[in-house]
Amino acid sequence: MAKQTKTTTTTELDPEAKDRLAELLPAEALEGALEGLEPEEITGPGGLLTQLAGRVVNAALESELDDHLGRPHGAPSADGNHRNGSTAKILATELGDVEIATPRDRAGEFEPRLVSKRQSRLAGLDEKIIALYAGGLSVREISDQLAELYGARIGRDQISRITDAVLDDVAEWRHRPLEETYAIVYLDALVVKVKTDRSVAKRSCYLAIGVTTDGEREVLGIWWQESEGARFWLAVLNDLNQRGVADVLIFCVDGLAGFTEAIEAVFPKAWVQTCIVHQIRAGMRYVPYKDRKPVAAGLKPIYTAANVEAAELALDAFEERWGSHYPMIVESWRARWENITPFLSLPADLRRIVYTTNSIENLNRAIRKAIKTRGHFPSEEAATKLIYLAICRAEGKWRTVYNWSAARRALKIHFGERMPD
């Protein structure tokens, strides 16, 4: 997906700027200023670095006003507009609170670019706030940490406004155009507690991960509903279709009833693969601890079989051994057999990619890690902000699907022209 969060880059000063900096702040003058100072007096709140930062910002603002007036400080005015004092303000920076004086012009036309009239934080601090929020810290914790690290006290309302700016990115991301064809799409949902009216309710957050025909993974969207159901998944699939997805080769889903019908209604040519891990977990709910290992061992020959025929023989063998004890497991596998076995016609490299929704389960774990400190969210928007930022962090670590070249060849063989060259 196209990242919406901003990143800070480090730029190298050009030689002319370095020479000017050396002229303005000679090394011997700096050494003299540092002589005899304790570390806290240099880097602590109100220390030398903070004071220097304030002077640099003030000098830059004065230079901006010179450019605006078209003449240096002290030169006579040709149009009647001239300096008209300054406005003192406290600027929150990564070095702590810095006192600056924003100069004014008589005509009131000067609009500084470095620090605008209503700006109370220096560029770069907003990105740190968003990064801390993405890491799962609450607004109160962010305020306390900034005060401890930088000596800059930023109110909780201000922090909320900064993180609310992410919602514009979320809206653009949720409606962005998508690829025409996806090789694989994984669908799943996780439950999040959200406050509604005067109570806290469980809400299902629907997620979809798409694997492009080049093997790149991306989260396709976030959708909300009170509970997971096939009817709502139909709305999700229609949204994907309206945003440009014309074909999906393989859907990997859990065993939710009606899921297959919902997919077939929007993408009739797609293969629907039931997640084997979900299928095993569903059956294990009926198995006591003493039988868990032998039952799991009995199921393994089914999903590791060489082909569908061998898998059917393995299921028959499992039924003969365990069918009288756990008939509900056998019934579940036979009822979903058509959607359990598609991956068995694929080569081993591709089987590992499509037989389980592990990709989206891993994403869900990353999201839960970010939201675990929250008992509940005050609103759906607040939950969306944090989930979106957790997705951005997770996607930044993703790589192309392992051994995609081999998987792509297999997809081309099975799906022909539907798999673009």
Question: What report would you give on this structure?
Answer:
The protein contains 19 helices and seven strands. It has two domains: 36-120, no CATH class; 180-418. The protein is of the alpha/beta class and 421 residues long. The strands form two sheets. The chain has a five-stranded mixed β-sheet with strand order 5-4-3-6-7, sandwiched between helices. The longest helix is centred in the N-terminal third of the chain and has 22 residues, at 48-69. Helix 5 packs across helix 18 (380-395) and helix 12 runs antiparallel to helix 13 (308-322). 49% of the residues lie in helices and 17% in strands.
List keywords for this structure.
19 helices, five-stranded mixed sheet, 421 residues
SSE layout:
Blueprint: H1 15-24, H2 27-34, H3 39-43, H4 48-69, E1 83-93, E2 96-105, H5 125-134, H6 139-150, H7 156-164, H8 166-174, E3 181-196, E4 199-212, E5 217-225, H9 230-242, E6 247-253, H10 259-266, E7 271-274, H11 276-284, H12 289-303, H13 308-322, H14 327-335, H15 337-340, H16 348-354, H17 358-371, H18 380-395, H19 404-415
Parallel strand pairs: 3-6, 6-7
Antiparallel strand pairs: 1-2, 3-4, 4-5
Helix pairs in contact: 5-18, 6-7, 9-10, 11-14, 12-13, 17-18
Shape: elongated
- Please identify the structural class as seen in this structure: alpha/beta
pLDDT under 50 segments (min length 5)? 1-11
Portion of residues within helices? 40-55%
Distance between the termini: 21 Å
Tell me the count of domains: 2
**Gyration radius, to the nearest Å?**
30 Å
* Counted beta strands: 7
List the helices and strands in order.
HHHHEEHHHHEEEHEHEHHHHHHHHH
| Sheet with most strands | 5 strands, mixed
Q: Strands of the largest sheet, in order across it?
A: 5-4-3-6-7
The number of helices is 19
Q: Output mean pLDDT.
A: 79
Strand content: 15-25%
